[in-house]
Amino acid sequence: MHSDIDAIQASLAEQSYIADRPTATALGLARALERPLLVEGPAGVGKTEIAKAMAQLLETELIRLQCYEGLDTAAAIYEWNYQRQLLHIRLTEESSRSLEARETEIFSHDFLLERPLLKAVLAKRSAVLLIDEIDRTDEAFEAFLLELLSDWQLTIPELGTLTAAHPPLTILTSNRTRELSDALRRRCLYLWIDYPSFDKELEILRARVPAAGEALTRQVTAFVQLLRRLPLEKTPGVAESLDWISALVVLDADSLGEEVVTASAGVILKHVEDQGRFRSKWLTVLLEAVSGPEGWREQVWLERAWQQLASKI
Q1: CA gap 90, 198 in Å, rounded
Q2: Cβ pair 31, 129 in contact under 8 A
Q3: In whole angstroms, what separates CA 190 from the centre of its chain?
Q4: Number of C-beta neighbours around residue 198 at 10 A
């Protein structure tokens, strides 16, 4: 098992997904035990990317169910192709076959529109099923998932009960906009992904945006690490860090300065109130911090930097 976890961690790193040991262990156990993995954490810290990276690692299909308020079973499991059914009925009206035989024909797999959950059950090989932002659905849909996640089977009235021959590696993500039920949590392994430490985020930016110079990468990491401690309407995640450093590369920036940071603030700050306070109160102090000695860009020095910054902000 330890070698499998090592392989997962190394393989994810090859795909520029920097996974710590707990993350790799959770993924390894989810595979070995064939249990769903519930991944929670702030928005933009890489929860969805885990499923994408695992699908590439396993060289299998990624099946994604994007959850939203009002999601129902028709959108998640299956629908009948009513247009094809009607066309088939018209074409066979003159047939000598019985009505029962014709009804059996139109309620067959040929007329079934597979949605993500049914597609995962019927897959020819084990896929990666991503149930993204499960906290956006209502409690009724969450309750429906309980049987599926326990037995990996679905019941279609016209076809009977369908059981997965190859259960998928299932990853559920949640931003904790509402509390999930204890019943759902019991059926899943659990992983919490928080905002990364300085060292981990630095490694992520290096891996994902190698075109950025080392000095710029370290400055951006330090800047975002300090920015997250401020009272923001929307705290930037790793996704925003990656977008921002990519934008700075496009703008030919090799270090952070007032002009380029002000011009690109919309990439990292997504609320007008945050941008207003950032420009009027925080920008100069933050730039002074990340432009200081090299040591200020290390995790231990960031703590001291924040203590000094907090008295000025």
Answers
A1: 66
A2: no
A3: 15
A4: 20
- Nearest in space to 239 (alpha carbons), one of 71, 64, 67, 52: 52
Which candidate, 129, 291, 125, places its Cα nearest to that of 223?
291
Helix axes 21-33, 2-14, angle to 10 degrees: 120
> pLDDT band at residue 110, thresholds of 50, 70 and 90?
confident
- Which region among 28-37, 75-84, 258-267 has the lowest average model confidence (pLDDT)? 75-84
Length of the chain: 313
Distance CA 49, CA 173 (A): 10
Taking the CA atoms of residue 237, residue 193, residue 207 and residue 234 in that order, the dihedral angle to the nearest 10 degrees is: 0
Q: Element (H or E) spanning 173, and its range?
A: strand 169-174
> Residue 242 belongs to what H/E stretch?
helix 238-250
| Residue pLDDT, tens place only, 217-243 | 999 999 999 999 999 999 999 999 999
pLDDT confidence tier of residue 108, bands split at 50, 70 and 90: low
Q: Please tell me the distance from the alpha carbon of residue 154 to that of residue 216, in angstroms, as a whole number.
A: 51
Secondary structure letter of residue 196 according to DSSP: P
User: Two tokens at 241?
Assistant: 């860090």
Amino acid at 30: A
CA nearest to 170, candidates 78, 41, 16, 58: 58
User: Quick one: how many helices (H) and strands (E) in the chain?
Assistant: 17, 9
Contact between residue 37 and residue 30 where contact means Cβ atoms under 8 Å apart: yes
Q: Is the dihedral of CA 230, 232, 234, 240 positive or negative?
A: negative
Which residue bears the tokens 């109130």? 273
